[in-house]
């Protein structure tokens, strides 16, 4: 479904990604792991056309490398950024409505979102700007799924959240997996990432240093110590 080859990305003269290769198949959950600052978020932004890059990025045979971000989204890729990017002056329900890509109903409904995140239903008429950080994270995840993406890129969905909210987000990710949505997950919490993923990549210094199954990563003490553990 998603194929990334020899991806290089830059912020001005700063060369951040150094020949990244990555694949996500239909319905597959893939986690991209690594310490902060190694290029994981930049990889997501490069796929979505948000940073200067070279190389090849394909989604279902479409070359994404020169497309604007809104066209990439309309091809069927959802993106949950690390900074959430909710619309603070709009209500919860208005934010969800903005996630829709057309008038035809998709696989995900308002009822689905409110079932997965009951707090959003309680606050459906509340302006998003006054929500807590955890509530804003729920809203960003829910808004993205209202667009019915075939692949969703999720960047650090549990960062800074209370344990109860982390479990809600983990349940949301499990539901996506059960319903066949492909996920590229950037996540610090190895427990969640290894539980739901079919494959994992580990990134270091702007390139991939490991690809394998969760079991293979658990058994590879050298990779974990060198590239993941503090």
Helix content: 25-40%
CATH class call: Alpha Beta
CATH fold-level topology: Rossmann fold
- DSSP strand content: 25-35%
The description of the largest β-sheet is: 6 strands, mixed
- Report the principal-axis shape: globular
Tell me the series of helices and strands, N- to C-terminal: EEEHEEHEHHHHEHEHEEHH
| Relevant CATH superfamily | P-loop containing nucleotide triphosphate hydrolases
Runs in which pLDDT lies below 50 for 5 or more consecutive residues are: none
Would you give an account of this structure?
With about 230 residues, this protein is α/β, with parallel strands linked by helices. The chain has a single domain, classed as P-loop containing nucleotide triphosphate hydrolases (Rossmann fold). Helix content is about 35%, strand content about 25%. The protein has helices at about 40-45, 70-75, 90-100, 110-115, 120, 135-145, 165-180, 190-195, 215-220, 220-225, and strands at about 1-10, 15-25, 30-35, 50-60, 60-65, 75-80, 150-155, 180-185, 200-205, 205-210. β4 (about 50-60) and β5 form a beta hairpin. The radius of gyration is 17 Å and the shape is globular. It starts with a strand and ends with a helix. The mean pLDDT is about 95.
